[in-house]
Design a protein that fits this description.
The protein is an alpha+beta fold. The chain has helices at 7-44, 80-85, 89-99, and strands at 55-60, 63-68, 74-76. The protein contains three helices and three strands, in the order H-E-E-E-H-H. The structure holds zinc ion. Residues 48, 50-51, 53, 68, 70-71, 73 line the site of zinc ion (ZN).
Length: 101
Amino acid sequence: MVWKPSEREEEFFARMEFEKKKKQEEEKQKKLAEAEKKKLKELHYMKCPKCGMELIEIDYKSAKIDKCSGCEGIWLDAGELETVSQLEKTGLDKLFSVFKK
Ligand SMILES: [Zn+2]
């Protein structure tokens, strides 16, 4: 007598197979997203978010301020706005004088 799996068992194995493939696909997409993120970071690191030109980093009072060599926009890293906002008026004036041509 040949043993035949019941319909419920076939359904179970099909679902198992699907779950397995779904997991593999999710892993693949995760790796792809990480690779894409890394690529974008390399591509955009120290580039102006507005015009894409090189940023020049200036150290000033524990803040590293990035100034664009193209459009002259000034960019701050996380937490640096707080640092800059705590500067005295004279400190702020000095900061801006650093950037004056
Ligand atoms: Zn720029």
